[in-house]
Specification:
Length: 410
């Protein structure tokens, strides 16, 4: 693909190339790209031999980023990660020798096999994007993306990551075994190392930085923020451990923006939040009873704020909304959760005529009038919310939702 091609097309081509190397993991590859565009860091937890290292290497090669790998072992020292100052007799001074952390993409392989002291060497780098050695702070390259892999905790020779370091990772993924079709193609195809050698850089560091800037500017409406805040509040009810921190909320919002950007939209939909919630919150949620894992808790959490009309009202769905309609129809998307996708358009619960381009639709609280078109009874939108776990599906590929002031109480 030409270097002057539109950035979304170049991103799509790069993801397609990664899919050809890491077979049967399209959803995980997409989330890894979302994590990069959201300026976060990725933790991949799974058994050995399932493609964690291959995924990291393929992403770096396809995106044209400098790649370095750190093999974490029990005897690894912090200086082995960030670098060390060595006395130079010729210059009669200490000269700093950068460690492997100075790269665009850093693979911290089997991070939980190192001691907590070595693991802590990543903390400043991941949060501040700089390292401090001998009292001097040195900036890391931009973009900076840490992909850490870890083995399950029950395996011999592992040290669990502390909660403070887990919180530095925007996402945690698990690849799992490939399906039968992907595994057959893997067995019959070329060696993955050969495919990595043949991979071409389809982007570069400047293109990724531009994509990160564009993703950060994706529009977020007030009702969407209400929905996100309701999720955060629900996570602190006691059923999910301590719940999600404000930093987790900011991470979730950045990931939702990046997901919308990768889908080619100019505004964040609730489906974007739902698509990234399990990956962003799974390693931050804890079942007090110890019966459910983080991803199961995240799937339970996504249904709580819209479980009944009172919750939906708090989210702002049944408030009056103003929808600025563009052309085209938003197609339903797979969002990676069990809940069915929203379906206002064409849904029997809410039948409206096709609006003209540029027409403003107003959704009332009790009368359910849409710019003169009658909807089915007032419960339609409420039932739709309960069924889909979503705010609203609108006409238009670039629809924007903004809350109107509620009517004064009579």
């Amino acid at each position: 693909m030409e270097a002057n091609a539109p950035l979304p097309l170049r991103l799509a081509s790069a993801l397609e190339q990664v899919d050809g190397i890491v077979l049967g993991k399209t959803h995980a590859v997409r989330l890894a790209c979302v994590c990069l565009l959201a300026q976060g860091h990725l933790l991949i937890e799974d058994l050995p031999g399932l493609g964690k290292t291959t995924l990291a290497h393929a992403l770096a090669l396809s995106f044209g980023l400098q790649f370095k790998r750190i093999q974490f072992t029990a005897d690894l020292l912090p200086a082995d990660v960030v670098g060390v100052s060595v006395w130079d007799r010729g210059e009669n001074r200490f000269v700093f020798h950068p460690g492997p952390i100075f790269a665009h993409v850093v693979l911290a392989d089997e991070i939980n096999r190192a001691t907590p002291k070595a693991q802590s060497a990543l903390l400043e780098a991941m949060e501040e994007r700089q390292v401090t050695v001998d009292g001097i702070s040195r900036a890391l390259p931009e973009p900076f993306f840490v992909i850490a892999t870890q083995n399950p905790q029950h395996q011999i020779g592992t040290f669990p990551l502390p909660e403070s370091q887990l919180d530095r990772f925007l996402m945690r993924l698990s690849l799992g075994y490939p399906d039968a079709r992907a595994e057959r193609a893997l067995l019959a195809g070329e060696d993955r190392r050969r495919l990595l050698e043949q991979a071409r850089p389809l982007l570069d560091a400047s293109a990724i930085l531009k994509a990160q800037e564009e993703a950060a500017r994706v529009f977020v409406s007030e009702p969407l923020l209400d929905y996100l805040q309701a999720l955060l509040q629900a996570s602190r009810s006691g059923a999910f451990g301590p719940g999600l921190s404000p930093r987790a909320g900011l991470a979730l919002l950045r990931a939702a923006r990046a997901h919308a950007y990768l889908a080619g939209r100019h505004a964040v939909l609730p489906e974007d939040v739902q698509a990234v919630l399990a990956a962003c919150a799974g390693h931050r949620l804890v079942d007090p009873a110890g019966e459910k894992d983080g991803e199961a808790l995240a799937r339970e959490l996504v249904r709580r704020p819209v479980a009944d009309p009172e919750d939906a009202l708090r989210v702002g769905v049944l408030q009056r909304l103003r929808v600025l309609v563009g052309d085209g129809v938003v197609a339903p998307e797979h969002h990676g959760l069990d809940a069915p996708g929203p379906q206002v358009v064409g849904d029997p619960a809410l039948e409206v005529g096709a609006p003209d381009e540029g027409r403003r639709l107003e959704v009332g609280g009790d009368d359910d009038q849409l710019d003169g078109h009658h909807a089915t009874p007032a419960r339609s939108l409420r039932n739709l919310m309960r069924k889909s776990g979503s705010l609203l599906r609108t006409w238009g590929s670039s629809a924007r939702l903004t809350a109107l002031e509620p009517e004064a109480e009579k």
